[in-house]
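EI: anyone free to look at a 123-residue chain?
SC: sure, send it
EI:
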Amino acid sequence: MENPSMHGGGRRMIRILTPILVLSLALAVSACNRNKPGIAFDGAFFDTKVTKSDDDRSVFTVVIEDVSQSVSGAMEAGRHAGTTYCIKNYGSSKIDWAPGPDDDPATLTIVENTMTFRGRCRV
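SC: here you go
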């Protein structure tokens, strides 16, 4: 004869394990997204690097790679990287660019599939 308490214990185990399995699956999916380089704009991912210029950290340079995927996407990735830098360091998203993402794409220089912006955080 089957023990009736086994059915209740099995249901209790399922109720305990289900959230754990769902959380594990969510973590596994989010870990997959970490393998994508850079940030996505115009359907493409771009690697960006922001470096301060000399001793004045309000002046910075943004290097955007893989520009041939989408020039407009690369420009927006550069804008995002610069904005993030200024917010992190000064709490403001106001930037004076020269050259920058608001310039005509035809006037920007692309060297070895890389674009460079220069900016100054307005403080």
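EI: The two ends are 79 Å apart (CA to CA).
SC: 👍
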